[in-house]
Design goal:
Largest sheet: 3 strands, antiparallel
Radius of gyration: 17 Å
Shape: elongated
Number of strands: 3
Number of helices: 2
Structural class: alpha+beta
């Protein structure tokens, strides 16, 4: 549904690809998500279009929440600098 008014969308506006980094499994992992953009048909809503989001992939994200948490855990457990863990 629309993030502003909550009305469920029925008309698709367009699609776009979003590249995401995820937790490495034997090497770097890159996901490609084809997100749909929707029209909000509620006349009183200020938002005309919106795209799909999830808890694991918030709006405008470049990496999954799972990867972000894995990096934080690695830094806390190892006690190393963030720049060392990210490489």
């Amino acid at each position: 549904g629309c993030p502003v008014c909550g009305v469920l969308a029925v008309r698709r506006h367009s699609r776009r690809r979003q590249r995401l980094r995820d937790v490495p499994t034997g090497g770097p992992v890159e996901l490609m998500w084809v997100k749909r953009r929707w029209f909000c048909d509620e006349q009183r809503c200020s938002r005309r279009t919106f795209s799909e989001v999830t808890e694991q992939v918030p709006a405008f994200a470049r990496s999954t929440a799972r990867l972000a948490q894995a990096l934080v855990d690695a830094i806390v457990v190892s006690g190393r600098a963030a720049s060392e863990v990210a490489c």
